[in-house]
Design brief:
By secondary structure, the protein is α+β, with helices and mostly antiparallel strands. The protein is 38% helix and 14% strand.
Length: 351
């Protein structure tokens, strides 16, 4: 039968001959197959495409994914990512270990948090340059956020610009070297008999792990399936993450989780899917249109993040004024658009 899988002679020699291939769901920027080899083994074949990108950009994404996977392959004990079996660099193809996904359960988050901490703890200062540094909010993001407040007729406390400038300095990734997945969303993690393993490392970087621990509080900001985690489940996953990190490194998690959440709040691009990031000032759109991504709208995502930051910074030494502004902005959004819904709870799983 015709075989669409891009297998060259080197891949044949490395892993064997494909006999059957099934196309799997993937982003428009990649193609993924589940392949049965002649010896009956299953493998995953992924090719990074240049759809929407220049060829150079596609090669950069492939190199980034491959570097992330290889760094993740350092894990001892339970793995945190599939093993790399073979690569075809010119064609941007990687052959990966096949992992049987056991599916979701109501208590999926503790295992996810443990594997996330184990992933983050795999790298250190000696790995500087192995991946790009984490790309966080900029001064332009902060100004766009303040412009949104003004567009909503919410007074901006005089100390907020100073707080935001100091926040950007504290979010500088230079002192941190945790291996960040870049998009650790439901669907990019697999629950296997050996624990949770992460896939799709195209946005991997080095930075502070708190930026991904913040996903639980801030509503999974790079994910179509935004969700709310609160109360006991939230406390449990953060405790699991911190204890796992401490057990592996002998140190407490560095940085401030409130800073990480505030960093996500002021990024307008975190309101839209990857294909639309960098194409417009997304905060400028909020007062005039409510645009959907996945199962919730931009205003609903934003209200959730505003309320999280307001709650976390109520007694915060460095973000107190930003917290008051966030509370006022959330109130204005809810009063102006009373049909806004809270994010779905974490157990209302869409997958």
């Amino acid at each position: 039968m015709p075989n669409p899988v891009p297998f060259n002679d080197a891949l044949h020699a490395a892993v064997g001959t494909p006999e059957q291939a099934e196309v799997l769901d993937s982003s428009p920027r990649s193609q993924v197959w589940r392949v049965r080899l002649a010896d009956r083994r299953l493998v995953i074949v992924k090719q990074i495409t240049d759809t929407g990108d220049t060829r150079a950009d596609a090669h950069t994404r492939f190199a980034r994914e491959l570097a992330g996977l290889r760094l993740a392959g350092r894990a001892t004990g339970p793995a945190v990512a599939p093993a790399v079996l073979a690569t075809d660099l010119p064609s941007r193809v990687v052959v990966l270990e096949y992992l049987e996904d056991l599916g979701r359960t109501d208590d999926w988050m503790p295992g996810y948090a443990e594997s996330l901490a184990r992933l983050h703890a795999l790298t250190g200062p000696a790995d500087a340059g192995a991946l790009p540094v984490w790309s966080g909010p900029t001064a332009a993001d902060a100004e766009s956020f303040l412009a949104l407040a003004r567009a909503l007729d919410v007074p901006v406390p005089s100390t907020v610009p100073e707080e935001l400038a100091a926040l950007l300095e504290r979010l500088d990734p230079a002192p941190y070297h945790a291996l960040l997945h870049g998009d650790p969303c439901p669907g990019n993690d697999l629950r296997t008999v050996g624990g949770v393993r992460f896939v799709d490392f195209e946005r991997a970087s080095l930075g502070n792990g708190l930026h991904e621990l913040a996903y639980f509080r801030i509503g999974f900001p790079t994910c179509w399936c935004a969700m709310s985690v609160t109360a006991a489940p939230l406390a449990e996953v953060e405790a699991v993450y911190r204890s796992t990190w401490r057990g592996l490194t002998g140190k407490d998690v560095p940085g401030d989780l409130a800073d990480a959440c505030a960093g996500w709040l002021i990024q307008g691009d975190a309101l839209v899917e990857r294909a639309h990031r960098g194409t417009a000032d997304q905060f400028a759109r909020v007062p005039v249109e409510d645009f959907e991504w996945g199962r919730v709208t931009a205003r609903e995502r934003l209200v959730h993040r505003l309320c999280v930051v307001a709650d976390m910074t109520r007694d915060h030494d460095h973000l107190h004024a930003l917290g008051r502004l966030s509370s006022a902005m959330a109130g204005r959004l809810l009063s102006r658009w009373s049909d806004l819904r809270p994010l779905p709870p974490y157990d209302a799983r869409p997958w």
